[in-house]
Amino acid sequence: MHKLRVEEMGRLEVAEFKVAEKLPVVMVLDNIRSLHNVGSVFRTADAFRLQRVCLCGITGCPPQQEIHKTALGAEDSVDWQYYPTTEEALAALRAEGYTIYSIEQVEGSLKLDEISLSSNGRYALVMGNEVKGVQQQVVDASDACIEIPQFGTKHSLNVSVTAGIVMWEFARQLGFTK
């Protein structure tokens, strides 16, 4: 066994990525403060070949050095859009036929390990602010909320870690991991 070199991994070039089939998932960032978290979400969205990332409110947009530092160029491969408010993004996504899930701990939330996705569905996943989480009005505008089961003393995970876990589960259920 040897560690693979980049050339051995068979990764797509940016131009190939742009035209490749995408996972029918859009990541929505609701007022994310840290540009490093934004960059990390871009990098993971590239890894799972998401359709796009919606940057909302105070969430920083490329080009910015802090985003590039963690995205490592994924901000160039993954399509993105900016919206002044998350509600505007959700209205546009709903009009495109997306089911909207906020990733938040709420009464009646669905546990990530218990959801069942439709293979022909389109999904928008809302990640909330590092301190305040997903805004209540955004939770109210969502079709449902998903929660990652946790078993330690802390009540939450880092937003980019949460995004990665949720993206993996959506990719797994929608058959993008084969």
From TrEMBL:
Membrane-spanning residues: none
Show where the tRNA/rRNA methyltransferase SpoU type domain sits: 25-168
The answer to whether UniProt assigns keyword Metal-binding to this entry is no
**Quick one: a GO biological-process term for this protein?**
methylation
* InterPro entries according to UniProt: Alpha/beta_knot_MTases (IPR029028), rRNA_MeTrfase_TrmH (IPR004441), SpoU_MeTrfase (IPR001537), tRNA_m1G_MTases_N (IPR029026)
Q: Which domain of life is it from?
A: Bacteria
Give the GO cellular component terms, alphabetically.
Answer: cytosol
- Write out the entry's keywords from A to Z: Methyltransferase, Transferase
Q: Which GO terms describe its molecular function?
A: RNA binding; RNA methyltransferase activity
**PANTHER family registered for this protein in UniProt:** 23S RRNA (GUANOSINE-2'-O-)-METHYLTRANSFERASE RLMB (PTHR46429:SF1)
Query: Which protein is depicted?
Result: tRNA/rRNA methyltransferase SpoU type domain-containing protein
Species this chain originates from? Alloprevotella rava F0323
